[in-house]
Write a structure and sequence with these properties.
By secondary structure, this protein is of the alpha+beta class. The protein has a single domain (6-80), classed as 30s Ribosomal Protein S18, CATH 4.10.640. The protein contains three helices and five strands.
């Protein structure tokens, strides 16, 4: 099962979620993800999605404007269950 790099900041009842770029995180860098790849089940920043798209032309990626297709944050999933 894939693990997602994510953080949730609780502020009263408001939750702000962000995901970290999987490729950058492997290099010990902290970069916010702008895309999610369903095939790889990984997150990518602007820089890394360019390389990913060159290598994997048939993979389906979703940007922040389509976050409904991104995985649910574990804390939210637990709450809903």
């Amino acid at each position: 099962m894939a693990t997602f790099s994510q953080a949730t900041i609780e502020k009263g009842n408001d939750w702000v979620q962000y995901f970290l770029c999987s490729a950058c995180e492997d290099e010990k860098l902290v970069e916010s993800a702008d895309f999610y790849c369903e095939s790889c089940v990984k997150f990518y920043c602007q820089k890394c999605i360019h390389l990913h798209s060159q290598l994997f032309k048939k993979h389906s990626t979703h940007g922040r404007n389509d976050m409904k297709k991104w995985p649910v944050v574990k804390k939210v999933e637990d709450f809903l269950l």
